[in-house]
Design brief:
By secondary structure, this protein is an alpha/beta fold. The protein folds into two domains: 126 residues, Rossmann fold, CATH 3.40.50.2300; 100 residues, LytTr DNA-binding domain (OB fold (Dihydrolipoamide Acetyltransferase, E2P), Beta Barrel), CATH 2.40.50. The protein is built from seven helices and 15 strands. The strands form four sheets. A five-stranded parallel beta sheet has the order 2-1-3-4-5. A five-stranded antiparallel beta sheet has the order 10-9-8-12-11. Strands 13-14-15 form a three-stranded antiparallel beta sheet, with no helix packed on it. It is elongated, with a radius of gyration of 23 Å. The protein starts with a strand and ends with a helix. The mean pLDDT is 84.
């Protein structure tokens, strides 16, 4: 049974969609439905359904904006709309399919097949990811592992200069000049990085202690070997000096 979440700003449209999904198919259960897209985003930060059915025409936030704001994208999105001109844009915005209202039974069955294929591929990828994580955790030469853009990245401590917060995202800056954007808060990144080499020097920054070149006491900055200047917060200054 597929657990589905529905988002549509019109309560009657939401009730109709729920009825169509559960009556046209015995393979879908509606686990949650929302008329408020902000409440839906909050729910989806903590829950991962098997699929999301999302209306496009919503006044406070349209469906495409909603997709862009999703931090958890580990499930397929199906666009529901009364206007078929949205089809191409929907598929380009990471939706796996679209359904025209009122929903046709045959179209719905085809969409369910696509949802199952998507989830099957994801399940296989998750199993492989777990194997790689487990192998790395048992390795004598354990590396720092990040999951991003559908791939696992394995790094040595020396590869990382610092990490910077950007709300629900974080950016890892590497010694070779490249950077990695993660859909993780800095607190989560801090939990992954080894505490003997990295220190959260500011609410927005974690630095590699082995990459420090200078500490400017008066200005309250550290200068890394790459010449990046990172601020030291007043709350962290004492703990930082103890480490030094």
């Amino acid at each position: 049974m597929l657990e589905a979440v529905l988002v549509d700003d019109e309560i009657k449209a939401l009730q109709s969609l729920s009825w169509e999904l559960t009556n046209f198919s015995d393979e879908i259960n509606v686990s949650a439905s929302f008329t408020n897209p902000f409440e839906a985003l909050e729910y989806l930060e903590k829950n991962t359904p098997d699929c999301l059915f999302l209306d496009i025409e919503m006044p406070t936030m349209d469906g495409f904006q909603f997709i862009q704001k999703l931090t958890n994208k580990n499930f397929p999105v199906v666009i529901t709309t009364a206007y078929n001109q949205y089809a191409i844009k929907a598929l380009k915005n990471e939706a796996i399919d679209y359904l025209l209202k009122p929903i046709d039974t045959d179209d719905l069955q085809e969409t369910i097949v696509k949802i199952k294929k998507f989830n099957s591929r994801n399940f296989t990828a998750e199993k492989l990811e777990k194997i790689l994580f487990d192998f790395n955790s048992k390795s004598t030469n354990k590396k720092i592992t990040f999951s991003t853009d559908g791939k696992l990245v394995f790094l040595e401590s020396d590869d990382i200069l610092y990490a910077e917060s950007d709300g629900n995202y974080s950016t890892i800056f590497l010694s070779d000049g490249h950077k990695i954007v993660l859909t993780k808060k800095l607190k989560e990144v801090n939990a992954i990085l080894p505490s003997d080499s990295f220190f959260r020097i500011h609410n927005s920054y974690i630095i590699n202690l082995n990459k420090i070149k200078e500490f400017l006491k008066t200005d309250g900055y550290v200068v890394l070997k790459s010449n990046h200047k990172i601020p030291v917060s007043r709350q962290k200054k004492s703990d930082f000096l103890d480490l030094l």
